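Translate sequence into structure tokens.
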Amino acid sequence: VQFVESGGGLVQPGGSLSLSCVVSGFNFRYYDMTWYRQAPGKEREIVAIISSTNNRPVYADFVKGRFTISRDNAKNTVNLQMNSLELEDTGVYLCNAAGGIFHWGQGTQVTVSS
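Result follows.
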């Protein structure tokens, strides 16, 4: 199993980033997929989940309508569009099947700073 996250970077508050996670090694289309993040000194937390059956998304409260999760089963990809970024969004963003059941990838660093 492999997760390759990309799209992170340095952005000012209020800016946007588009993250992508390419997945291999399991039958992607049958799994709910999750974006997580881990800020410095904090535990990993769920950002958003997307269903495998109807693409229904569920978001953490702190997303507040700013982020959009999507998936492309033909490309084994799960995406996270992040708008109106805040300083508190800084961290490493990782994807995994719901529950974090597979070995983690490296993640992609998102830094929000003025």
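Note: The chain has a mean pLDDT of 96.
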